Amino acid sequence: MTGIRIRVEPVDDAVPKSLPKELGFGRVFTSRMFTRRYTAEKGWHDAVIGPYRPLALDPAAEVFHCGQMIFDGTKAYRRPDGNLNLFRVEKNAERFNNSASRMAMPKVDIGEHVQAISELVRLEHAWTPKQEGAALYIRPVMIATENTLEVRSSRDFLHYIILSPVGPYFSGGFKPVSVFVSDQYVRTVRGGTGEAKTPGNYAGSLTGTEKALAAGYQQVLWLDAVDRRYVDEVGAMNIAFVYEDKHIRTPALSGAILPGITRDSLLKLAPDLGYSVAEDRIDIREVLRDIEAGRITEAFGIGTGAVIAPVGRFGYQGRDYAFGSGEPGPVAQRLFKGLTDIQYGRAPDPYGWTRVVKVASETRATTATGA
Ligand SMILES: Cc1ncc(COP(=O)(O)O)c(C=O)c1O
Q1: Which end of the chain is least crowded, N or C, by CB within 10 Å?
Q2: How many Cα atoms sit within 13 Å of 97 on the Cβ side?
Q3: pLDDT above 70: residue 88
Q4: In the chain, what's the furthest Cα-to-Cα distance?
């Protein structure tokens, strides 16, 4: 196999002594990180896995002014045999490159990016927490590092990857969340950067999210920016609605929606579990009417973090539309189980989505006590 040469530097404290009980999501980081630099002259070079440490950047670095930056997120899951599964990591790398193109940044070689993730995960696998629903979250990032205040694409970049042991995404566990439908703020717009994973989309969503939290909701449903009528996404997840316990509808990718890998996986898995699926333009007013009429039996967010986040209530223009029993619905439960069984290697993977990272058996023995 060809690949890049990654220099591995020694680290102190390579294996965690113990992880906090409440891991939260992305608050604890492992001992090592991957870094690699890009210059116009040399291309990508100097790949290193070294100690996790602060970055030293000039205050004029372009990332701080233009926000020329991308990131992504994927997870490694502990298998029953103690090895780890990466889930659709090449697809995640493709999305990283699509984001790079949209933000005028250099692409990475998909094989090299996956090699860097695999090497880092293999070295850091002991950080993978053991409790149900936990995983090792993988955060690849690329930032513009040229020192300039000019508004043009940087010539220098840093590509880095960090890992975080994570517990379940929502502290309340697999329970329906309340969702505020935002008709004041929008997340992004067709032709904008919504289909790229770039921080501006997220920074711009914070005011709307804070207001929704203050009003007693947990997440925001984003509508399209032009008509403020068609459903885009929920929080940092895609969304799906279930009609009469059997038909699943999700907004079609419009250019403003991030093409979620979990969404794509569920669109392939759900028909095999007996559900029909459709990608559509979905009008929020129609959704709320269908909830009231009892036609929509479930709704859920879909993403790597939560996998499935059932919705129990939408708030729109001063009215609440609650549905379901207060527990995740049967379709959400079935899809959650179907997908997580593949991710954790508890069920066969007929789709070829998982890639095993083999970990040394002597270190595995101390950590593989049931994912
Ligand atoms: C805005 C947004 N939508 C959807 C998703 C879900 O994508 P995925 O299933 O690939 O995690 C994410 C997470 O990356 C996101 O940030």
Answers
A1: N
A2: 14
A3: yes
A4: 62
